[in-house]
Design goal:
Blueprint lengths: L4 H11 L5 H13 L1 H19 L9 H11 L22 H4 L12 E4 L2 E6 L6 E8 L8 E3 L3 E7 L1 E3 L4 E3 L3 E4 L8 E2 L5 E8 L2 E3 L1 H11 L2
Helix pairs in contact: 1-3, 2-3
The protein binds zinc ion.
């Protein structure tokens, strides 16, 4: 995955405490897997403290200023020791921040059919406007082409997938919104397990979307 401004903005919002609980779980899990983002977060926390001391009511930088800050902060990252887990579930693919939500290994969860080759395990409060779930995408299977009515964060826990923009492997976060129409395809060789949060509904596009629109008269 290529690091992008959307990921930096996400980390900055996390440092500022502006994310929903569901989004924060995704970011915390990503941080457990990504030393570079942990370094970034430490920088952002210093910035947040500085902005708070400076009396700013709303310690968030606009995107253009954030881009300037990121250039200054763009230094090599020191290696970080692998995280030790103290959790009950014996599954090394599940980073510590996610373990308190799961009492079984990934294979043993009560997966439900979502699309051919794709199964889902819902987490969190179903009444929340943000939907958080785990996805299991079988090797070479795809999530049908779709776009989003809100934001979508998808963190890869195991395996990987490719969409029209990039390849995402373990620890990478795929960030999508209303401007993105994509069809994630899992890598060959193993299932891809992901943690996803969506805000607002997803709208099918492509062949499935045309059939859906025809049936529903949209
Ligand atoms: Zn999507």
């Amino acid at each position: 995955m290529t690091r992008n401004i959307e990921l930096e903005e996400l980390l900055f919002s996390y440092a500022a405490g502006h994310l929903s609980q569901e989004e924060a779980v995704v970011v915390a899990t990503h941080l457990a897997l990504c030393p570079e983002s942990r370094k970034r977060l430490a920088d952002f926390e210093v910035l947040q403290a500085f902005l708070a001391d400076d009396g700013a009511d709303e310690p968030v930088l606009p995107s253009e200023q954030l881009a300037d800050v990121l250039c200054v902060l763009d230094e090599p990252v020191a290696p970080v020791a692998p995280e030790k887990s103290g959790a009950e579930v014996e599954d090394n693919r599940i980073p510590k921040p996610l373990r308190e939500y799961l009492d079984k290994s990934l294979e043993n969860l009560a997966w439900r059919f979502k699309f051919p080759g794709v199964r889902e395990y819902a987490l969190g409060d179903r009444r929340s406007s943000k939907k958080i779930s785990l996805l299991r995408i079988e090797e070479n299977a795809s999530i049908p082409s779709h776009t989003h009515q809100g934001s979508e964060l998808t963190l890869v826990l195991s395996g990987g997938f490719t969409d029209s923009r990039d390849h995402f492997g373990r620890g990478d976060v795929c960030i999508a919104d209303t401007t993105v129409d994509h069809r994630p395809v899992a890598d060959p060789g193993e299932p891809c397990f992901c943690l996803a949060v969506t805000d607002g509904s997803v709208r099918l596009t492509g062949p499935y979307g045309r059939i859906f629109d025809k049936i529903t008269g949209r």
